Amino acid sequence: MSPRHLWAAACGALACASLHGAQSYDSGTIPEALRGGVAVVRNYELSFDRPTITTASQRETLAITVLDGDGDDAAGFNMVTDNNSSLKSFSGEIFDSRGNSVRRIKKQDLGSTELSEGLASDYTTYYYQPHYASYPYTVKYEWEINYRDGILAFPTFNPMPGSQCAVEKAVYRLTLPSGTMFHPRSFNMASDPEKRSAGGNDIYEWKLENTPGIVYEPFAPPVTERYPMVYFSPHEFSFNGIAGCMDDWSGYGQWQWKLLAGRNVLPDALKAEIDKMTTGAATPMEKIKILYDYLAATTRYVSIQIGIGGLQPMAAAEVYKNKFGDCKGLSNYMQAMLAYCGIDSYYTEIGAGSLRILPDFANVMFSNHVILQVPVGNDTLWLECTNPRLPLGYIHDDIAGRYGLVYRDGTARPVKLGSYPDSLHLIETKAAINLSAAGSFKGHVVKNYHFDRYVDNMDFASLGNDERVNRIASWTGVAAPRISSVSYTETKSISPVSTVSYDLEALQLGSRTGSRLFISVTPLRTKSGMKLGKSARKFPIVVEGGGINREEDSIALPAGMSVEALPAPVAIDSKFGDYSLTVLPGKSGIVIKRSFLLRSGRYDAGDYADFKSFMDAVAQADSGGIVLKMD
Q1: Is residue 138 part of a domain?
Q2: What span, in angstroms and rounded, lies between the C-alpha atoms of 140 and 91?
Q3: What's residue 530's pLDDT?
Q4: Could you tell me if 569 and 549 lie in one domain?
């Protein structure tokens, strides 16, 4: 089973196995305790039989009752095959609220596509989205997948397809030849598996029954802390004819090392280019920067997901010839160029986005990206070769603070990347506004973006003028803004900053009633924030992407206009963050100063009421207003 298939399956539909015997799909038989969500998994089974280290069969069934329209997505069928797997059989059926069959689904009813976001892929995606006129309804799927020539991980037991989806009954059945070792890791499961032996096999069963759905909570921890699931790694395995052992990351690293061997040979033409480029470069750091800039200027990213290409990087010579590669190929290419210059660097797998490598559990499903570790003196650079638009060595928020699997000396070991303090992730905004007696205004705005906020806005450099104007318009809180004189500059360094400046005008700032003009304390910013809902909380609060917004708006008033009312100063000091707001008379008008720091961190579920109070207090302060009056 390839990791690409596994990653797709983990993010797509549930994997299950065949139901035995008749079952009623009358929605009225669902236990009351399971009815509070959007869907109920009535019966979910997955039977995975691996008779050899290269072959397996997976028989699956999913029967799920959709209670309302928000549960439709959970009932969709979505699976991916590749050159190592095939969809042997499929059938499905839809039942009405009383459990009467109303439609049969055949294999030919499935949609399929071989399109992918990558340049090259051997994926085939099969999908089906049921539609029924009334709720509740039930859909049942049965299918079988066969695997050949390699299984890097067993399918995950993940019986809940999403938020507010309860489970009435779920079983995962794993069949292996007697004495076969494997490595499971359970999350949020109340019981250990049952084991029995039959016919020369060991059979393990994990079960989940009558479990209410997980209610969505903002700022929630990773899914492995919230949902019941079990991951599996084989002990001995073989993939595309290459055998290995996945008892830990070191064992897996020894196998992956075989895939890296011989991929770093550079053509003579490239060596000549490197010699020319680096002539006069006195230090390793100068050479690293020259090669990183060369990588950015001469290559582009594409995804290569054919056969073992989902794990093995494209050879450096091929990247040079074709001028493209994926994260594996580009990182290997950069490593080869550095090695030619006598600079050591190390290929590193990492989990980006929602995936995170666990340092004490080796499983290919936890990594989906490759970067490069480059020791420089007493420091360590992490190079993002997929996007060399990033500043050299900058650790972006998609990988910061996570474990990377660093390949060195024929094996691999987990190493934790660093991260930056919240105080560095800063947006500074200064606006000078001239207000007219009619309420229209003209002004100039300067916004500085630091560290992760720079990265978030980094694509601004590549936008055309119309796109830049539309982007700025989405930031403002005024109606029909007119934006002109847009400029962008950046300092692309290990402490990156970019600046966007522009002129802004509109026919009205705030709202007018008679001789009074009412404006917000955040007059040039779209309102942000979220409703956190009730104060009850089950899971810890995890705040990621913390940082500071600091704003200063100077508003010059026209002759004859005066300040009638200003909000009182606000200062909030909390373990979750700090907030301050002052609105003071200036020489010719008013000055609004606002600062909001949200701290990254992990907080107990019992802190939720205080966290909600803090966020509500910030929203309340931001809703304050200023009253101006024509004399």
Answers
A1: yes
A2: 8
A3: 66
A4: yes
Distance of alpha carbon 557 from alpha carbon 509, whole angstroms = 12
pLDDT for 251 beyond 50:
yes
- Does residue 242 belong to any structural domain of this protein? no
Answer yes or no: is pLDDT of 32 > 50.
yes
How far is Cα 298 from Cα 290, in angstroms, rounded to an integer?
12
Amino acid at 108: Q
For tokens 């060596």, the residue is 271
Beta carbons of 318 and 344 less than 8 angstroms apart: no
Kindly provide the residue ranges of all beta strands, DSSP E only, lying in 356-454, ordered along the sequence: 369-376, 379-383, 403-408, 411-416, 426-435, 441-450
Token pair 């309420």: residue: 439
Query: What per-residue confidence (pLDDT) applies to 121?
Result: 52
Cα–Cα distance for residue pair 349/368, rounded to 1 Å? 7
- 3-state DSSP helix/strand/coil % of the chain, to nearest 5: 20, 40, 40
What would the mean pLDDT of 392-410 be, rounded to a whole number?
Answer: 95
Question: Looking at the domain assignment, is residue 300 inside a domain?
Answer: yes
Longest pairwise C-alpha distance within the chain: 96
What does the angle CA 3 – CA 208 – CA 56 come to, to the nearest 5 degrees? 35
Q: Check whether residue 412 and residue 361 sit in a common domain.
A: yes
Enter the pTM of the model: 0.89
**529: its two tokens:** 């924030």
The helix/strand/coil state of 120 is strand
For residue 444, what pLDDT is reported?
A: 98
Q: How far is CA 207 from CA 158, 163, 173, 192, in A?
A: 11, 20, 9, 9
Q: Does a cis peptide bond (omega within 30 degrees of 0) precede residue 359?
A: no
Note whether 451 and 425 are within 8 A (CB): yes
**d(Cα 247, Cα 521) in Å, to the nearest integer?**
58
Residue type, 499: T
In sign, the C-alpha dihedral spanning 173, 176, 178, 181 is: negative
CATH number at residue 318: 3.10.620.30
What is the spatial distance between Cα 531 and Cα 448, in angstroms, rounded to a whole number? 28
318 Rama sector, left if φ>0, alpha if ψ -120 to 50, beta otherwise: alpha
Distance between CA 78 and CA 29 in Å, rounded? 27
For residue 252, how many C-alpha atoms fall within 13 Å in the half-sphere facing its CB?
A: 25
Q: In which band, very low, low, confident or very high, does the pLDDT at 305 lie, cut at 50, 70 and 90?
A: low
pLDDT at 301 over 90: no
Residues in the chain: 631
- Which tokens sit at 527? 């309102």
Q: Which residues contact 25 (CB under 8 A, 6 or more apart)?
A: 42, 63, 65, 95, 99, 138, 140
Q: How many CB atoms lie within 10 A of CB 197?
A: 10
Tokens linked to 538:
């089950």
- By CB atoms closer than 10 A (0-12, 13-18, 19+), residue 272 is exposed
Instruction: Show the domain range for 273.
Output: 259-416
